[in-house]
Design brief:
Largest sheet: 5 strands, antiparallel
Radius of gyration: 16 Å
Order of helices and strands: EEEEE
Distance between the termini: 44 Å
Helix content: under 10%
Number of strands: 5
Oligomer: single chain
Length: 71
């Protein structure tokens, strides 16, 4: 796996671009992915992931909320 990591200018997000090359029963396969990780001012954290390969395209979006402490 080879990846390139880049911070946004405002420092609130970063992008991770990766390429994975592997052997699938004698066939060379490649997966390319682009991930954008963001932190909002309210503590919400998101990951926007897009990848492509010989199997097709995959899009995923995750949202994480900050847990509130129990009283």
């Amino acid at each position: 796996k080879k990846s390139t990591f880049t911070w946004s200018e405002d420092g609130k997000s970063f992008t991770l671009v990766s390429t994975i090359i592997f052997d699938n029963n004698g066939e060379k396969m490649e997966i390319k992915s682009n991930e954008v990780w963001k932190m909002a001012d309210d503590g919400t954290f998101t990951i926007d992931l897009n990848s492509t390969s010989g199997w097709g395209e995959l899009k995923q979006f995750y949202t994480f909320s900050k847990l509130q402490p129990k009283p």
